[in-house]
Design a protein that fits this description.
Order of helices and strands: EEHHEEHHEHEEHHHHHHHHHHHH
Radius of gyration: 26 Å
Number of helices: 17
Helix content: 40-55%
Strand content: 5-15%
Strand order of the largest sheet: 4-3-7-6-5
Number of strands: 7
Oligomer: single chain
Distance between the termini: 44 Å
Shape: globular
């Protein structure tokens, strides 16, 4: 099982002693894997959702575009859509396929009949029962044994089969193959199930010859659902961060509350506030790459340790930049330690080059961090915190954001446990 080891030197009369703390991080690794798997699925979903948009085109074209979008995410080596035929042989026709392992399908006899080999496997069962089927690991699955060697040759380790049923039309299956075992955690499967529903809706619209206007409505709904799905992924991100640094548990949530309160007071619309909240909740996601012993160190950081800490905005940007949020979340995360006079990091941006959202998060982050307990110091009184941000207003920090934040806290129109009581 995975472990984390923290070594600490202690000077004594006998010489240097070293204590070792060894911690089982199995749960943390499993949570990080689930988060990664969900990110893969959301990225694939984002591209596939665009493939389902107007203009209208033949079914085989948009189905192929969906498969291509899924396999742009490198972990998914093959995606294909099969249509169940009703003849005596109950064959499965490949309607669309894409991916680096597309040759895996060459020569396979595809049937959903109960007495056929492929009919007994995940694909056939999925079509017959209308229920999702999942092969966690092709190396250990008994039902996948007939195709194990073929899977090895094409770099396949896990598979998910999702049923498709078009009302008064055809039925079939969306099958996605991944290069890693256990690549389809529950959150990822839910994303692909939602994608399957969108495929069915799009196919039904084409079959019924619905108007372009209806298609635009469907696209708007799909984009809204995509935004909701992307926003929902913030919760496991925050949980993963808090596992790394228990001393700052709740920091991201409190920063988000402060930031949104500032934005709302400044008259921002709800849609923009939604994006501000998402960015604030993951503004420190980059710290997931920093060793836990540095995050929780009770003494002053060394130059090398401080250099690692300063990398977290850029690391956060790298993690988030390819996720298609409706707002510039990755850029906000990258800029939340920039300062108006150019003294911030990692880019040394000045003035208007810094996004307004990043300026607000900078104020909220500074207030929450100073007013909360840390391993290396006690919490600072709110009065002193506000004096500090007012000194930097206009030079390092956004003056309007500082003015609004101070007013909200002093007038108790924004009340957060611990902040307003000191």
């Amino acid at each position: 099982f995975p472990i984390e080891i923290m070594l600490s030197p202690l000077e004594s009369a006998e010489g240097i002693l070293v204590t070792a703390a060894i911690r089982d991080i199995t749960v943390q690794k499993e949570r990080e894997h689930r988060l990664t798997a969900q990110n893969w699925a959301l990225s694939a979903y984002a591209g596939a959702a665009l493939a389902l948009s107007p203009p209208a085109r033949p079914p085989q074209d948009f189905l192929r575009a969906v498969c291509e979008a899924i396999t742009r995410e490198s972990v998914y080596v093959l995606a294909w859509i099969g249509i169940a035929e009703e003849g005596p042989d109950k064959l499965v026709r490949i309607a669309a396929e894409a991916g680096s392992a597309v040759n895996f399908l060459n020569g396979l006899h595809l049937s959903w009949a109960e007495d056929e080999q492929t009919g007994k496997a995940a694909m056939g069962v999925c079509i017959r029962t209308g229920k999702l089927q999942h092969v966690f690991d092709s190396e250990t699955s008994e039902t996948y044994a007939p195709w194990r060697e073929r899977a090895r040759q094409h770099g396949i380790r896990s598979v998910v089969c999702i049923p498709l049923l078009v009302e008064n039309g055809w039925r079939g299956v969306l099958i996605i193959y991944a290069a890693r075992p256990n690549a389809f955690e529950t959150p990822a499967i839910e994303v692909f199930q939602h994608l399957a529903e969108q495929i069915v809706h799009a196919a039904h619209a084409l079959d019924q010859g619905q108007s372009l206007q209806k298609g635009k409505i469907e696209l708007a709904n799909t984009q809204r659902q995509l935004t909701d799905a992307l926003s929902a992924m913030v919760a496991p991100m925050v949980a993963a961060m808090e596992m790394r640094d228990p001393y700052t548990a709740g920091h991201e949530t409190r920063v988000a509350e402060i930031a949104v309160a500032i934005g709302r007071e400044m008259g921002w619309p709800e849609e923009r506030l939604h994006g501000l909240r998402v960015a604030a909740q993951v503004h420190d996601i980059g710290k997931i790459s920093i060793p836990a012993e540095i995050l929780t160190k009770p003494t002053r950081l060394t130059g090398g340790e401080w250099a690692l800490i300063r990398e977290h905005p850029e690391t956060g940007y790298t993690i988030l930049k390819d996720i298609p949020f409706a707002w510039p979340v990755a850029k906000i995360v990258r800029q939340h330690h920039e300062r108006l006079d150019g003294s911030g990091y990692p880019l040394g941006l000045k003035g208007d080059a810094i996004l307004p959202e990043a300026r607000i998060v900078a104020v909220a982050d500074m207030v929450e961090a100073m007013a909360s307990h840390r391993p290396y110091r006690p919490a600072i009184k709110l009065k002193i915190v506000l004096q500090q941000i007012k000194r930097e207003a206009g030079s390092k920090l956004d003056a309007e954001a500082v003015r609004v934040c101070a007013a909200l806290l002093l007038e108790k129109r924004l009340v957060l446990p611990g902040l307003n009581q000191r």
